Amino acid sequence: MPVLHDRLVTQLGWLNPRKFLDGLAVSNLTPGPIAVLATFAGYRVAGVSGALVATVALFVPATVLMLGISHQYARFRDDHRAQRFLSGVNPAVAGLILSAALLLGKSALVSWRGYLLCGISIFLLGKLRWHPAFVLVIGAAAGYFGVLP
Amino acid sequence: MDSRNPDQTSVRADPISLGRLLATFLKIGSIGFGGGMAIIALMEHEFVRERKLISVDEFLHGVGLEQILGPFAVNTSIFLGYRLFGLMGGLLSAGAFLAPSVTLVIILSHLYFRYHSVPGLQGAVAGLGPVVIALILNAGWSVGRKVLRSWKGALISIGALAAGIIKLNTLWVLAVAGAVGFLISRASPPSRDSAAAEKPERGAAATMLPLALPAVAPLAAIGLTFLKIGLVFSEGDLFWCRFFMIGL
C-alpha cells in the first residue's frame, strides 16, 4: 500500500491524496483484495481499458512467482526437512490469522451492537453452518438500515 | 487440460471439475468483502471444510508460502488452483477470483468519478466489519483446532499471534516459526540420525545435503530474490486493517 501510494500519488500524480484515500475506501468496500485499488486508479486515467491493464499488470509478477512457488511446493512437500520446517510454519499461520481478527476487531467493534453482530455471526457460521454469503448479507443489511452506529 | 493431475492421493474427497473450481473462485471473488484474511477464511470454508479438496496442513502451507510475495489473497487462489489442476488451474483460478472484484470496482469507479460519491454503500459496509471478524475467527478456530493439539504448536501459535498483534513482519515471523519447528521436530522423533554414531551421522548429513539442496535451492533462490519485494509489500495486510477502518 505505501508502495502504491508512493507511485500513484507522489511520483505519477495520477491521484491526489484525497482521491487515493477515497480509492482505498472504494476498494475496501468491494469484494476482493485491496490491490484492486489499482483498478480504481487505472480507471481514473484511461477508463475501462486502463482499469483492466492496471489490474493485470499489477498481478502478473506475483502470479508468475506464485506459480513457481506452487510448483516447487509440489516437489519439496514430501522432503522430510521441508516437512519439519513447515511443521513450525503451520501453527504460526493459524496464530497470524487470529491476530488479523484481533487487529481488525480493535477498530471494527466499537459498540455493543458490533459485538452482538459478531457473536451472532460466529453462531450462524460455526454452529448452524450457514454459508458465509448469507451472513455477510445480514451484516450489510444491518449496516444499511443504520443498526450499527 | 486437467489430464495432468499428479499425486492426488493425499486428498481424499471427491475430485472437483475445473469448471466447478472456477465457479467456486468466481463465487468467492464476488462475496469476498474485506479482502486479505476474510478471503482466506472463505477459501478455507469452501476448500477445506465443505469440499475437503485439500488438507488443513496443505492449506496452511499455501497461506504461508503466499506471504513470501506479500499477503495477496489471490496468491492462495493460485496455489489452490495449481495444486488441483496444474499451471492452467492456477492461472484460471486467479482470473476467476479477480474478475468479479474488477468488474465491481470498474462500476464503482465510474460512479465515483461521475458523482464523487457512492451513495448507500458506506452504511452497508459498516455492517460487514463485525461479520468479517466473525468469519476470520471462525476460520482461525477451524484451522487452529488441529494445530493446537500439541503444546509445541500451541506455543508457536501464541507467539505468532503476539507477533501479529505488535505488527512484526509476517515473513520473518513465519521464517522464525519454521526454524523453531525444524529444530524441535528433530528432537522429538527418535529418528535414524540419533541412532547413528556421531561420525557416520556427520557423514550422512554431508551426503544428504547435496541431495536435499536441488529440491530446496530453487525455492531459496526465489525466496531470496524476492525477499525485498516481500519486505516492501508484506506490511500490506496490517496496513489494510487500518485503512479498512478509515474507509468506514
Describe the structure.
- The complex is a heterodimer of chains A (149) and B (248).
- Chain A is an all-alpha fold and 149 residues long.
- Chain A has three domains: 1-76, no CATH class; 79-104; 109-149, no CATH class.
- Chain A is 81% helix and 0% strand.
- Chain A contains six helices and no strands.
- The relative contact order of chain A is 0.05.
- Mean pLDDT of chain A is 76; it is low at 29-33.
- The termini of chain B are far apart.
- Chain B has helices spanning 18-31, 36-50, 56-66, 73-115, 121-147, 151-165, 170-187, 192-195, 198-225, 227-233, 236-247.
- Chain B has a domain at 11-147.
- By secondary structure, chain B is mostly helical.
- Chains A and B meet through helix 2, helix 3, helix 4, helix 5 and helix 6 of A and helix 1, helix 2, helix 3, helix 4 and helix 5 of B.
Helix tally of chain A equals 6
Distance between the termini of chain B: 43 Å
Low-confidence stretches of chain B: 1-12, 188-248
Could you give a short account of the major beta sheet of chain A? Answer: none
Largest protein-protein interface: A-B, 96 and 131 residues
The SS-based structural class of chain B is mainly alpha
Extended strand count of chain A = 0
Compute the CA-based radius of gyration of chain A: 20 Å
What is the domain tally of chain A?
A: 3
Oligomer: heterodimer
Residue stretches of chain A low in confidence (pLDDT < 50, at least 5 long) are 29-33
What would the keywords be for this entry?
heterodimer; A: 149 residues; mainly alpha; 81% helix; 0% strand; flat; B: 248 residues; 78% helix; disordered C terminus
Fold topology:
The complex is a heterodimer of chains A (149) and B (248).
Chain A lengths: L1 H10 L5 H13 L7 H40 L3 H29 L3 H16 L4 H13 L5
Chain B lengths: L17 H14 L4 H15 L5 H11 L6 H43 L5 H27 L3 H15 L4 H18 L4 H4 L2 H28 L1 H7 L2 H12 L1
